[in-house]
Amino acid sequence: MKILHVSAECYPVAKVGGLADVVGALPKYQNNLGHPTSVVMPFYNNKFTQANSFDKVYEATLSLGESSIVFNVLKTTEKVLDFDVFFIDIPDLLYKEFVYSADDTQRFLAFQIAVLDWILSRKEQPEIIHCHDHHTGLIPFMLQESYKYESLNKIPVITTIHNAQYQGWFGYDKLHLIPEFDSSKTGLLDWNNTINPLAAAIKCAWRVTTVSPSYMEELKENANGLEVLLSHESNKCVGVLNGIDTEVWNPETDHYIIKNYDIKTVQSGRKANKKWLCDKFNLDETKPLFAFIGRLVGEKGVDVFPEVFKNSLEKEAISILVLGSGQPETENALNNLKPLFQGKYNAYIGYDEKLSHIIYAGADFLLMPSRVEPCGLNQMYALRYGTIPIVRRIGGLKDTVIDIDNEGFGLCHDNVNAAEVEHAIHRATVLYDNQEKFKTIRKHIMTIDHSWDVSAQAYINLYQSIN
């Protein structure tokens, strides 16, 4: 079965969030199962594209309303990844240093039209088109309704919702940019009197998936306005838990970390990584090290951190390290704690891939008090490296972390507020003080299988059920 994934992100080409990690791993595992799988994405001006050479495999002109736009389809000259990646090159729209911007309606409309024009030209067409998030949300509609793509409308199309909070809304003044279709079908694009690409995808895709079973259920209650639609379309919706790439995320071979280790050498390996972190960020390696890695935005629950950290650092013998960037007010609040808790707390505002790996390999606990977490990959990375997750019971966190009081291996809380997160941190310090139990749990979590093998097969089964 020939599978084509369409996405705005793909690790290591371009990454903003977990979408990139999924699209950078799932195709590899589907290839391993014997199904030729490739990705098509925009051609950005970034480190990856600057570091590689590309061949042109297709050139054409697309129509975006009354505008004619030349585009190319590129492919790396050398095989760089474990699967083929094709790039839509539209210099004036897509070749930017950023992935997302204020003019995304035009940018991603042009991208989606170029993808379908290219597929239309190919002798060998995909047997499954798998779209990811709202940036590709109009592809199911165009395949079904645009006259130009009528010959492609028998190809099953899947839409995966990675985060339903972002839906790609735009006004009816841009309706003419969509390739011609029967105007009586405009309702398929509409939700709450605006054009909503994610809603259109839910209506028109053959199947709709989310990145965890719990998130699928939660969306029927909280989907930023799409609750009724998802409930109505529930017969074609299914939650498939994401996996992680266990070749990239492997403490035995990870070239980023200070010292590699396995279950037998976990004590010395993690000690070396923790020491490096504590030396670099002026922290006490004898204390339990709590860490956060991710976007500093409300969805992640980080607005409670300034109060939580202040109270916990005053009451508990712990160290805290933050890696992330996001809302300026949160960044400032976290930076302002540094002089108050020197030797106990530090924050790196920004993102550093190497540092993130070392934190997974050296921190004792990972904080994830998310308000929204469709799947979450960080907790799976943490488990793989022997770092115990502290999570809110939501979405994929609920599906992957079981509390130690329920014969599990993590620390869970139900709400996003300072009191509950502080209590979870206190419970973690109690666990840390019981080193025998702490080390037993750490070894156990490293054996939990969250690889893509199971999830990739689940998607293959889904494709085969509709093909």
UniProtKB/TrEMBL annotation:
The record's listing under Pfam families reads: Glyco_transf_5, Glycos_transf_1
Where along the chain is ADP-alpha-D-glucose bound? 15
**Which species expresses this protein natively?**
Olleya aquimaris
UniProt name for this protein: Glycogen synthase
NCBIfam families in UniProt: glgA
**Catalysis performed (reactions):** [(1->4)-alpha-D-glucosyl](n) + ADP-alpha-D-glucose = [(1->4)-alpha-D-glucosyl](n+1) + ADP + H(+)
The family database entries (PANTHER family) matched by this protein are listed as: ALPHA AMYLASE DOMAIN-CONTAINING PROTEIN, GRANULE-BOUND STARCH SYNTHASE 1, CHLOROPLASTIC/AMYLOPLASTIC
Q: Matching CDD domains, A to Z?
A: GT5_Glycogen_synthase_DULL1-like
Pathway listed: Glycan biosynthesis; glycogen biosynthesis
Role played: Synthesizes alpha-1,4-glucan chains using ADP-glucose.
Q: Which keywords has UniProt assigned to this entry?
A: Glycogen biosynthesis, Glycosyltransferase, Transferase
| Domain Glycosyl transferase family: residue ranges | 280-437
Family assignment from sequence similarity:
Belongs to the glycosyltransferase 1 family. Bacterial/plant glycogen synthase subfamily.
